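ok new one. same drill as before - structure tokens go in, u give me an amino acid for every spot. 448 of them this time. try not to just spam alanines like last time pls lmao
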């Protein structure tokens, strides 16, 4: 046992005469014993059995800290979701309504952890025995509530008491789902959250999470990324007409829920500058200056190569890029094939090199770079580098119907979009948030 417990007081507050009298006068009631734990004058918890009360105190602080960490991650996920969504988004109200429950759980665990630490440091520990009087026969469950061994469902049900329609399920293990149901399975829109599992809000099918289907409209923040291929098609060269630029098509590689006509301003642009330690985009400087001149927030990206060192690539990028006040964070574009990762020495060697590049560029730029990857990279490799996943913003290429299930800054929707003022296909991107969050991003995350 990690704690040296000093049981200073065992308070038994049972008035046996009053108890007997009450039981005789109220035969329809039954006693429920419970135990209140105290650390000095701080209330820890109520439990139904004295053995559970002692077990609660004897639990080591690492276990409590683990539970607290899980609750805090749930709270962070909810805050993140609310920060990048708007009240007009489906699910916003449900997630916002659940936030106080998670906040209360965090506060309770923090109080428990603090007081158990105080007991370990010599605070007085006491158990107070109390009695409640409850109906001898528990009242029947409301018609919209159903319990099973794993948790409680509350909501709409059919004649067979299967979940059908809107409802919520609270699992005994801390899981929570609220949304639509069909034949006892999650179906349609809903959100789910659990300790150490990211919040998932979006479309469900036969109990499986598909992802968040975004509604595209003029309130969202759209941008593009460009390279030499927006200037050269075959042997022909084309100029970009920055004064005419408007996004007119979101590509054909996936179906999209679009409200109104696609006619959006270009609110940001990323331009390729370098690749490896010897390749440079000859149009970079002119495009960069044109974007700045037209008031478009601009950022620069480097395409990472597995054939040269990360250090040489970082300095090659820094020696050829612009890093001016107000610029978007620099981006590291990482797209190795599986064979290239194997030839490099494996995924850990890849991440060692990526950390080197990111660190060097961050020291010079003064802001954390953004990591550009595709969905396969996220699925296959990113779990191997939790520090990078936690500490760096992600710009992801995913040409599907559903929003990527990661914490991201930008989402590349398609490679075949159309922009007035640019010849040929253009990569179209959307910022993960609305205007207020984009303005906040420009204020706090750009170069100073």
């Amino acid at each position: 046992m990690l704690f040296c417990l000093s049981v200073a007081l065992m308070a038994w507050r049972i008035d046996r005469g009053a108890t007997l009298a009450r039981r005789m006068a109220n035969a329809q009631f039954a006693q429920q014993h419970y135990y209140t734990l105290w650390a000095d004058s701080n209330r820890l918890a109520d439990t139904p059995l004295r053995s559970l009360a002692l077990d609660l105190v004897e639990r080591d602080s690492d276990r409590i800290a683990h539970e607290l960490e899980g609750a805090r991650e749930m709270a962070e996920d909810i805050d993140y979701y609310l920060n990048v969504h708007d009240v007009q988004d489906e699910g916003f109200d449900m997630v916002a309504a659940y936030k106080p429950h998670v906040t209360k759980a965090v506060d309770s665990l923090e109080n428990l952890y603090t007081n158990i630490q105080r007991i370990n440091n010599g605070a007085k520990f006491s158990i107070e025995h109390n009695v409640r009087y409850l109906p001898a026969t528990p009242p029947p469950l409301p018609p919209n509530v159903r319990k099973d061994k794993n948790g409680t469902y509350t909501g709409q049900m059919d004649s067979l008491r299967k979940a059908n329609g809107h409802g919520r399920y609270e699992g005994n293990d801390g899981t929570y789902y609220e949304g639509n149901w069909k034949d006892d399975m999650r179906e349609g829109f809903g959100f789910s959250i659990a300790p150490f599992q990211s919040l998932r809000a979006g479309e469900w099918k036969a109990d499986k999470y598909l992802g968040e289907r975004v509604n595209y409209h003029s309130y969202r923040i759209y941008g593009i990324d460009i390279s030499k291929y927006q200037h050269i098609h075959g042997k022909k060269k084309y100029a970009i007409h920055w004064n005419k630029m408007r996004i007119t098509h979101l590509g054909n590689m996936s179906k999209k829920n679009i409200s109104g006509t696609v006619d959006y301003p270009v609110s940001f642009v990323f331009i390729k500058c370098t690749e490896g330690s010897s390749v440079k985009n000859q149009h970079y400087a002119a495009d960069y200056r044109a974007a700045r001149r037209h008031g478009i927030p601009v950022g620069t990206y480097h395409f990472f190569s597995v054939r040269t060192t990360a250090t040489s690539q970082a300095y090659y990028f820094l020696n050829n890029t612009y890093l001016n006040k107000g610029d978007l964070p620099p981006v590291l574009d990482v797209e190795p094939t599986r064979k290239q990762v194997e030839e490099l020495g494996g995924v850990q060697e890849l991440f060692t090199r990526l950390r080197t590049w990111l660190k060097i560029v961050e020291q010079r730029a003064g802001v954390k770079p953004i990591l550009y990857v595709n969905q396969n990279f996220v699925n296959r490799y990113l779990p191997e580098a939790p520090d990078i996943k936690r500490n760096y913003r992600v710009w992801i290429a995913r040409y599907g119907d559903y929003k990527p299930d990661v914490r991201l800054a930008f989402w590349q929707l398609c490679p075949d979009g159309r922009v007035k003022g640019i010849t040929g296909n253009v990569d179209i991107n959307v910022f993960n948030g609305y205007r207020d969050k984009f303005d906040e991003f420009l204020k706090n995350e750009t170069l100073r």
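The chain is about 30% helix and 35% strand. and btw The longest helix spans residues 92-120.
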